[in-house]
Amino acid sequence: MPLVRISLRHGTSTEYRKALSDGVHRAMIEAIAIPPDDRFQVITEYLPEELIYDPQYLGVHRSDHVVFVQITMSFGRKPQQKRRLFKRMAEILAQAPGLPPQDLFINLVETSWENWSFGNGEAQYMDS
Known about the structure:
The protein has helices at residues 14-32, 79-95; strands at residues 3-9, 41-46, 67-74, 104-111.
């Protein structure tokens, strides 16, 4: 049930954005065992002045190709699963589309199961 938001600088190719999308999804399947068909993503490109970040925060040297990945998901993953997700996503995206690991910024937002509706005005996980 993760909802993924991918934010990056304007001007990338369709192929680049697809590789980001596919890589993030693959990492979630491999690292936190989401079902393969559980895919909900929003990809947004921003003008340079609309994507604001520190290029050296915490000693990580980011370029203008930085990509923000925010994943909203239900509570329940253990810290080691989250670490595995971060690492696996960096590995996959380094391969394709060639995103350097220092240009990958990941944020997880956890929410309760009852806060999801997947359509029809129903709370599918409310009674789970």
